[in-house]
What we know:
Blueprint: H1 3-18, H2 26-33, H3 37-49, E1 54-57, E2 63-66, H4 79-94, H5 104-113, H6 117-126, H7 144-153, E3 155-163, E4 166-180, E5 183-190, E6 193-198, E7 202-211, H8 217-225, E8 229-236, H9 238-243, E9 256-260, H10 264-271, E10 278-282, H11 284-301
Antiparallel strand pairs: 1-2, 3-4, 3-7, 4-5, 5-6, 8-9, 8-10
Amino acid sequence: xxxxxxxxxxxxxxxxxxxxxxxxxxxxxxxxxxxxxxxxxxxxxxxxxxxxxxxxxxxxxxxxxxxxxxxxxxxxxxxxxxxxxxxxxxxxxxxxxxxxxxxxxxxxxxxxxxxxxxxxxxxxxxxxxxxxxxxxxxxxxxxxxxxxxxxxxxxxxxxxxxxxxxxxxxxxxxxxxxxxxxxxxxxxxxxxxxxxxxxxxxxxxxxxxxxxxxxxxxxxxxxxxxxxxxxxxxxxxxxxxxxxxxxxxxxxxxxxxxxxxxxxxxxxxxxxxxxxxxxxxxxxxxxxxxxxxxxxxxxxxx
Length: 302
């Protein structure tokens, strides 16, 4: 067994001991793991750096204990479930700016080291044949952790946001977050109502000591979807359907959709990507928007 694997197994043993909910001295942890006191002290520092909530108390009567967010009991999985869980953990490592810190980069390795040897070897072979080929041009979203904390604590936040007209600073109540096309969004309530903001366009965030009450994000979005909409009817070529498959749901089958009136302007800009492969039949307001876009394009190239 390599030194790295021994260290990881000892780390897991330490975490399970601390999960008992009481304080342990370094001497007690050394006796339980068979390591030296100095090694235990180094292990505690390593675990803290990895993000584990370990509280160290110096002096007589001191020691180490685990704060909330402790390690959960192990799962009992069938082989296919174990492989599926590993691939999920590995996939998460590639999602940009996950708000859980650097610990996500070690989760899959820790998990595999706890599996039976034959299954671990199977997974090691498998991971070389199932590759992540995601978009390498995804913009950085450095404030996901702060926004996640605001969502979790239900605290309003003041943020500076980069718009097409320059920076704006305003206060929002962050109801929730979403990952769409590997870009992080925060859904916030403000005087403008419910809006979604791309986190990579946020320039600064300041959490306020001002709690708010709101339904969960799924309920808020469902209520939002129940707004009075207008019927959008499109004539699409096969290529047009392919180009707009990420814009409208069930585009392979439908030609009509109910769209909130407030979103027509945004939809018109999205439809531009299909060019002449799409024609708006209704509503007239959306047709006029598309005409304005076309006239502006013509002026650019005349």
